[in-house]
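Morning. Coffee machine broken again, so started the prediction first thing and wrote up yesterday's gels while waiting. Chain of 259 residues, entered below exactly as on the submission form.
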Amino acid sequence: MVYTCISMLFARYLGLFGDHVVPAVLYRYTQVLRREDLVNSKGKPLLTNARLEAVWKRLSDRFATVVADTSMITMTPEYAAHFHDIYIDGKEGAKMTGDRMKMLMLTLPFMVRDLIAPEVHHVHVCTWYILVLNHVYTCIYQVLLINKAIDRAKAGSRLYKLPHVADPSNEIVEVLIQCMDWNMASRQSGIPESELPDLHQKAIDLLDILQKHLPDKTGEKAKWNFEKAHSILHKVREIVLWGNTDNTSCQAPEVFTCC
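Came back before lunch.
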């Protein structure tokens, strides 16, 4: 096992996914649910903080439902809480190990599907209950809540004739699958030289789809124009120079860990 720049490239990719892609996914949901024109008669966001938190709790709870009997892997309630600490609460110093980040990459496409869309059996629930019974609300997905409010709005209301919101989950799943696809392709053992152009194209396609479906990233001016994002374009060159990623390790050598 050797320690080379190529292993650091893989570590940077996990960092790109964990530090940038995942927050951008959560930001995209927030953009939809907290669109600037979606305000009540007092000018406050139509979707309250508590209701937005219900989305993140739903997402965290989904992780805890992944069990080996049906999924071949198990995600514990502790993992779900760890995810919530990092990405929802922004707990200072909270980080995921590389292995946990790879588990997140494998499962997140399934966790976000239809995250905020109405389920079929919820469509006929009376809107009055949404307004009166707070605990019933948690069974009503946010897209339905917002669009019902828009439909009920009268002339003169801030919501009158506003466009409906739509669940961006399909586009987000597409991004996450492409992230996983590039990761698996770049990590395969013994990749032949003839497949390296395809691998490079996958990196280009990944950057393109990030800009297409998560265009604002998390609100930064630079968006996806930064070194760590573009580092995946150098993957093929690194393989040519140092060999396949599976022959390397980004763990610290033993000499640096002994007392």
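The radius of gyration is 21 Å. Going to sketch it on the whiteboard this afternoon.
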